[in-house]
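WARN no homologs supplied; continuing
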Amino acid sequence: MDNSTEGNFLRPGEIVMRNLFSDFTQQAEKKIELVMLESADKPLSKLLQRGEDQQFDQLLSALGNVAEHCLPSLLHTLLAWHRRQLSDAEIKNDLKRMEKSVNANKTLNSQELDFQLQRREAAVEFIFCLALIEILKQLPFHPGHEDLVRSIENLAFKHFKYKEGLQNNPNAHNIHMIADLYAEVIGVLAQSRFSSVRKRFMSELKELRTKEPSPHTTQSIISLLMGMKFFRVKMVPIEEFEASFQFMHECGQYFLELKDKDIKHALAGLFVEILVPVAAAVKNEVNVPCVKNFVELLYTQTLDASTKSKHRLALFPL
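OK structure emitted
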């Protein structure tokens, strides 16, 4: 194996990364093929989720470990793999393989074909997110790389956009599951690039708030809020803790202004998701002004609203 490029020898970490990534692509492609061949009734999560394949889990963990030493090149490689997997050429190759494997007498109608292609795309996204989650855990060791951060944010926030008529799509469950995985990606990303994630989220929210109120706008805002469900407040250092609560305060201001019951309930649910881990770990931090301000901001209205039957279930936990 030639481990040099353009006369420059690769660092040992790069060599390990290339070998690992080669294993990853082989295993991932087998999994994608399996998804296309399996019965449509078989949930995607059962085929791909963590804990179902110990060997693949170990491979993802190894990619995460090696990312400490070569994260930028590993992310570039993973993003390129993702683009290639969703390209027309790769889709056609997989379709040909699937047609050879299924009963030769059975041809898929256009609806079945579309469903299988959506399942394939969901499988690619699922595997991609699992790899991203592991790799991005090492992002704190690699300051900068705004281009990569932006690329990941773009992919994630695209999946937080509400899709009209999704409830009638047989792949709706998979689409929601991928959005949740991308939310997990954003949760990991925010641990080291919080200001970037916050800025992007607020920008998207601001844009949606300028739109005419409608069921579509309501659902779009709720979908965006759900994209932050894995955001977790960093308890240390104190500067990051305060920044997290400043963000919560901004969301709290929005909460107080809200007239739409469904969005209000969704945001209350998001606050609970974010605050429960804080409540479990908090000690002297409750005396930090930004925390007191946030609590004071929401307490009275939340307490009042939670006594009303239309809000009770959603707001009482908050």
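The radius of gyration is 22 Å.
OK
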